[in-house]
Amino acid sequence: MMLKKCIPGFFCLLSLAAAQTAPPAKVDTGHFFHRPNAPTQVQGPGHLDDYIAGEKLRLKLEDAILLTLLNNSGVSVDRAQFDLSQFAVQRAHQPFDPVFTSAFAPTRSTSPSTSSLNGASTLSTLSQNSTLGFSQLFQTGTGVNVGFTSNRFTTNSSFATVNPSFNSGLAFSLSQPLLRKFGLFANRAPIIIAQRGVRQSQATFESRLSDTALLVINQYWDVVQARKTLEVLKKSLELAQASYQRDKRTLELGALPPLDIYRSESQVAQRKVPVIQAEYNLKQAEDALRQTIGASLDARTGPAELELIDTADASGGLAAVDLQQALVDALKNRPEIEVQQQQLAIDDTNARLAKDGLKPDLNLNATYTSNGLGGVVFNNSSGTPVLVSNGGFTDSLAQVGGFGFPTYGLSLQLRVPFRNSSAEADLGTALVSKRRTLYQLRGLQESISTEVKNAVHGLESAESVITAAQDSRDLAAKNLAAEERKYQLGAQTIFFVLDAQSQLSQAELSLVQAQISYQKALAAMDHATGALLARHQMKLASPTP
């Protein structure tokens, strides 16, 4: 009676444990009767129309970064790789998935009789065996099996007292490792490793996003630089053309020797060459930026003219950086450090799991089966079969439910291998892997420290160059104004004016280069310290645990 009351509670406990061990769904993979088909194409670029204004693609630096993270094919590949890592957690839960089994196996047998004790000259039997089963492995290592069997047996033997007969049984079995594979850790270790692998993939993805963000920032400033360079060169060409037109009018008035006209004319021809080269450099820089932000994939925005809003002027003063604080921030924030930290944790888990594999194998097994019999009962004592009771399958079920005919047992099995080469190899692999990871972490920290130092030095150098380039540009402009005044007064030849124009053009190009280098140095500094995405208000969402 006590066992009858415990059976419903046993099934409730079983269903509750199954619900607790089921992994959370991460991706819609359909259901039992329908599974989604594999995609044949990918989604096109998005949000580009939001930045179209008057047939122009108007972008700030933040917009270019956002479009890159949304539309860049390389980013999508990295994101897919990150998504793939999350299925490892779901796969690691597979041993704890509940399993339901069923089978039906009818067997007909006809054989000649070799003895009168068979009860028939030709013995014919029909056995119809049906089984239902449920099994579940819990994260403690406990294995539970529930099985129901029923066999309907019919024969033409005159000696059969129950024909047809129904033999049924309800069996419960429980297994529990007591040394190896005992407890939560030994059984959850693959799940823990998979979860750390997801965090590792997340950090790798974040690192790739930071690299891609740095790429698009540099490409954005490359376009700005190419456009400013073209403007400076065109201005220089216009100055040369104005000098040539002035000399041409002077020649027509007879105030200039005929051979002197070639000096200003040759300058016009010479300055056309860098203008043409700068135009094609600008096209190449714009095409590279369009590809990175995904505009080249869109038929409307691809040909649209780029209009970049942000300028390279260092408004608000130059940045001040503390080297020691930058080193601390880099070692704290860089996602590459997190990748190695997670790998160290994985190595520790593998080593602990390998040590568990070296333990002896001690298993406790318990079984309980309730048996039942039913069918049509005959009395053959008089030689002629006499019907006693007309029972059936329900009678066998009643006896099974009554637990009046139990079979139960308990076993304890110990297995002690003299040597477990596989587990020893796993332990050695985990220890060597952790030593390798420690060296990799140390090398990574050295590389990051060097990168931060170079970024700080590059930023300081860019700041100094900007100041010098601004002074050089101002002095070159004053020198050109002085040379033009001297030429107008007849105190200098056109050679000095043209030379001053070239010096001003070079000074302006140097200033543009210095300003762009400063903006790139700022981005490199943020990248080196792991603050680039945060600087632009972007954060990678945490995966579902």
Which structural traits does this protein have?
single chain, alpha+beta, disordered N terminus, 545 residues, 7-stranded antiparallel beta sheet
CATH class of the domain at 209-329 and 439-535, anyone? Mainly Alpha
Mean pLDDT: 84
- Tell me the CATH topology of the domain at 209-329 and 439-535: Outer membrane efflux proteins (OEP)
CATH-level-2 architecture of the domain at 209-329 and 439-535: Up-down Bundle
State the helical fraction.
55-70%
Number of helix segments?
11
The first-to-last residue Cα distance is 44 Å
Identify low-pLDDT runs. 1-25
Basic shape: elongated
Largest sheet report: 7 strands, antiparallel
Category by helix and strand content: alpha+beta
Total strand count, please? 10
Question: What Rg do the Cα atoms give?
Answer: 42 Å
The helix-strand sequence is HEEHHEEEEHHEHHEEHEHHH
Beta-strand content bin:
15-25%
**CATH fourth-tier homologous superfamily of the domain at 209-329 and 439-535:** Outer membrane efflux proteins (OEP)
Description of the molecule:
This protein is of the alpha+beta class and 545 residues long. Helices cover 56% and strands 19% of the residues. Strand 4 (122-137) and strand 5 form a beta hairpin.
